[in-house]
Amino acid sequence: MKISPKIYYPLSLIVNRLINLVKFIILARILNEYDMGQVAIILIFLAMMEVITDFGISNAIMILSNTKFQMYRIELHRFSILRGLFLSVLSILFYLIASYLDKSYSAAIYLIACVIPLIRGIYAVPMAVFSRNVELKKISSTNIISSALDAAICAVGIIVTNDIIFVAIGMISGEIVKILLSGAKLPIGILSKISDEAKSLIREHGSWIWTTNVINLIINQGDKIFIGAVLGVAPLGAYQIMSKLAVYVAYEPLSFISQAMGPIFSKNYRSEASKNKNYPMFIKIISFSFLFSLLTILLFNLCFDAVVKISIGDQWLKYKSLAIVLCAVSLVSVLITICGTYLKSIGESKNLGISTGLQLVIYIFMLPTLYYSAGVIGIAIAGLVAGGASLMYILFKILSSSRYS
After folding, report:
1. CB of 320 within 8 A of CB of 304?
2. Whole-angstrom Cα distance, residue 310 to residue 48?
3. In the prediction, which pLDDT does 153 show?
4. Among the listed residues 4, 13, 5, the one whose alpha carbon sits nearest the alpha carbon of residue 257
5. Per-residue DSSP letters for 97-158?
6. Minimal CA–CA distance to 22: which of 196, 159, 175, 128?
7. Rounded CA gap, 181 and 139, in Å?
8. What does the buried/exposed string (b/e) look like for 161-187 if buried means 16 or more CB atoms within 10 Å of the residue's CB?
9. Is the distance from CB of 342 to CB of 265 less than 8 angstroms?
10. What's the start-to-end Cα distance of the chain, in Å?
11. Alpha-carbon distance 388 to 394, whole Å?
């Protein structure tokens, strides 16, 4: 029986998240707080590299006209690869300096992770082309196989050896699979100069997206960087576990909607006959997402002890208050993500950038005060207040402007 891509793709996203959930549970049950802190450092690093590597190229590919896409596709691919190569080389240099100054940073897991920006630079454009063409089955199969291999290597390695290096080995393996399945190849003349026209396209279609992503990176990873710098690796590990748990409760169940609707919004936007379908679809999605996540958080609060004992273990029960606040942060984040997907897909990214700038200012202002008054939970509350203000701004702009409808 042939399954429609409209059904297959959302189902595949759910499967992908279940694979990552199993990986998370295994890590949480086996690793201690310090080891999880080291894993958190890797994840922060990769989040930084992913934002810097993309530079809005993927969004430019999604909304370019067919003529411009055919003209500049190869140049955009070259730009992505060269940027990834530069960041990998730069990361290795930082690793060598850091490991020389402080032996605690000499672990091989950090060195292995330095290669990932180059790998992502190679497959970023081919994967964006899949999204542009709404090739949902190709996107789905690539992501599932990549996640499954990553999780399998990580889980088996951790269970057998209890060595966190297999976290990085699993990541590398999954990323290499994406190169193979996306059909990514090194373009001819990879070292050739990027034309001014191609650079202009990247700035035009990606500058606001990239600025927004950088601000989001600071907001989403700033709490973890602050905790790691002020409190150390072990508290960072505990915060990372609660943060991931909150994400699986209030963000992941709905994040597939944003991924699934992005290509559809973009396709409708490029068609004059279908442009008007986007706004009503957005209103239904954002309303459903809010109610679903709110009910999920309330249920999780009631069943917290049982859920944690069964999944990640008794050692994490003492962090209930932190987990609930982070669930609220995840609720706000998923709504912002859906709004952002809608605006990016219709070529309206400026207000998204302004809203994240507002979020950053409020977050930086409130973080020190709330940390010194409420500790680690205060850090999470600062993220919740800042995210809430950003969400209110962006919803007001979307709902009050006829341009987005």
Report:
1. yes
2. 33
3. 93
4. 13
5. HHHHH-GGG--HHHHHHTTHHHHHHHHHHHHHHHHHTT-HHHHHHHHHHHHHHHHHHHHHHH
6. 159
7. 9
8. eeebbbbbbbbbbbbbbbbebbebeeb
9. yes
10. 38
11. 10
Give yes or no for a contact between 318 and 311, defined as CB atoms under 8 angstroms apart.
no
pLDDT of residue 101: 60
What does pTM read for this prediction? 0.73
- Beta carbons of 148 and 23 less than 8 angstroms apart: no
Residues of the chain with pLDDT under 50: 106
Burial 367-377, CB ≥16 within 10 A → b, else e: beebbeeeebb
Query: For residue 74, what are its two tokens?
Result: 């190869």
CA 313 from centre of chain = 26
- CA dist., res. 323 & res. 313, Å (int): 14
How far apart, in whole angstroms, are the C-alpha atoms of residue 124 and residue 54? 7
How many residues comprise the chain? 405
Tell me what pLDDT residue 7 has.
Answer: 67
The tokens describing 131, both together, are: 């999204």
List the domain boundaries for the chain.
1-194, 205-405
Asked whether the beta carbons of 218 and 390 are under 8 A apart, the reply is no
- Sign of the Cα pseudo-torsion (83, 255, 400, 294, in order): negative
Cβ atoms 203, 54 nearer than 8 A: no
Determine if residue 55 is left, alpha or beta; phi over 0 gives left, psi from -120 to 50 gives alpha, anything else beta.
Answer: left
Angle at the Cα of 371 from the Cα atoms of 368 and 377, rounded to 5 degrees: 145
Q: What gap in Å lies between CA 147 and CA 194, rounded to an integer?
A: 33
Cα 73 to chain centroid, rounded: 24
Q: Is 34 exposed, middle or buried (0-12, 13-18, 19+ CB in 10 A)?
A: middle
> Which contacts (CB < 8 Å, 24+ apart) does range 15-20 have?
15/144, 16/140, 16/143, 16/144, 16/147, 17/248, 17/252, 17/253, 17/255, 17/256, 19/144, 19/147, 19/148, 19/151, 20/147, 20/151
120-172 pLDDT, tens digit per residue, is 888 887 888 777 776 777 888 888 899 999 999 999 998 998 888 888 889 89
The owner of tokens 């992913």 is 50
Cα-only R_g, the chain: 21
Check residue 306 and give its pLDDT.
92
**Tokens encoding 173:** 């393996």
